[in-house]
């Protein structure tokens, strides 16, 4: 209890916990659909685009979120269109590597690889502001409402978009909705996890849950639980042992994934 009291005595830690929990929950929910549709690398591609746009924004003296959110949303639509013309992983590799290269070059030629750039690349709980928390709350509420309202449609599209289209479901609309929400979650989550690690929060909980759960609803619930637990343990490690926040959360997710694999094999036997 003394550890918890000490953590909540710091305003920056409270902001990090609130925003991190909300973003982890949203990333887990969206991650299930992305993994099922083999779009799991979309988060990785968008995170690199987000870093590139943030570097450009810092170079020209504009608030990064004002540029990153619209740019990443456009990139999400672009990747969805490319996915139909070439292999999805190839399209993501082209866009992500190009965006990362632009960000590094712009940062090097202007402000240099300073603290702000490092925070966006590797994440930092100190970088979160009250505005980030407010945006996280809005994003979380939006994602949860969309999941509740469109649950059946999202479920159908995730497993068989051809069948969904044949039954009258507007597949393009739900693909676009998922892309927009993923883009916003990636931009906000980059503040905590960093551009290089945010995609892991989207994919790890989903693939871990699929090792032990067989039903869609069970996977969604388990994924949300795993994501929140990994974040809480990661933030504690970061606070008390000076472990980088993003790296700590990823390692906890990795540990949970390995435990679930072992449990799945034991249960299978």
Q: What can you see in these coordinates?
A:
The chain has 269 residues and is an all-alpha fold. It is 82% helix and 0% strand. It has 13 helices and no strands. The protein has helices at residues 2-7, 11-36, 42-60, 64-83, 88-109, 115-122, 130-149, 151-159, 161-166, 171-193, 198-209, 216-241, 245-268. Helix 3 (42-60) runs antiparallel to helix 6 (115-122). The model has no long low-confidence stretch (mean pLDDT 81).
- Low-confidence stretches at least 5 residues in length (pLDDT < 50)? none
pLDDT average, as an integer?
81
Give me the secondary-structure category: mainly alpha
- Please state roughly what percent of the residues sit in beta strands, choosing from under 5%, 5-15%, 15-25%, 25-35%, 35-45% or over 45%: under 5%
Question: Which sheet architecture does the biggest sheet show?
Answer: none
């Amino acid at each position: 209890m003394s550890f918890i009291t000490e953590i909540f005595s710091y305003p920056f830690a409270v902001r990090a916990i609130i925003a991190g929990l909300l973003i982890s929950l949203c990333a887990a929910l969206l991650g299930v659909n992305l993994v099922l549709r083999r779009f799991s690398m979309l988060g990785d591609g968008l995170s690199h685009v987000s870093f590139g746009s943030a570097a450009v924004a810092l170079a020209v003296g504009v608030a990064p979120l004002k540029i990153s959110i619209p740019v990443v949303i456009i990139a999400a639509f672009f990747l969805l269109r490319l996915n139909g013309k070439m292999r999805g992983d190839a399209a993501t590799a082209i866009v992500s590597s190009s965006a990362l290269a632009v960000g590094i070059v712009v940062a090097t030629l202007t402000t240099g690889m300073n603290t702000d750039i490092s925070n966006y690349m590797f994440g930092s709980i100190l970088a979160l502001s009250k505005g980030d928390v407010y945006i996280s709350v809005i994003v979380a509420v939006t994602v949860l409402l969309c999941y509740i309202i469109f649950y059946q449609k999202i479920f159908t599209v995730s497993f068989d978009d051809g069948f969904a289209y044949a039954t009258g479901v507007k597949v393009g609309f739900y693909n676009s909705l998922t892309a927009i929400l993923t883009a916003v979650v990636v931009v906000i989550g980059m503040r905590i996890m960093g551009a290089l690690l945010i995609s892991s929060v989207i994919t790890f909980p989903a693939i871990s849950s699929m090792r032990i759960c067989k039903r869609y609803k069970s996977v969604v619930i388990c994924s949300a639980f795993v994501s929140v637990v990994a974040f809480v343990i990661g933030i504690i490690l970061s606070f008390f042992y000076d472990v980088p926040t993003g790296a700590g959360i990823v390692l906890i997710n990795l540990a949970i994934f390995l435990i679930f694999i072992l449990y799945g094999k034991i249960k299978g036997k």
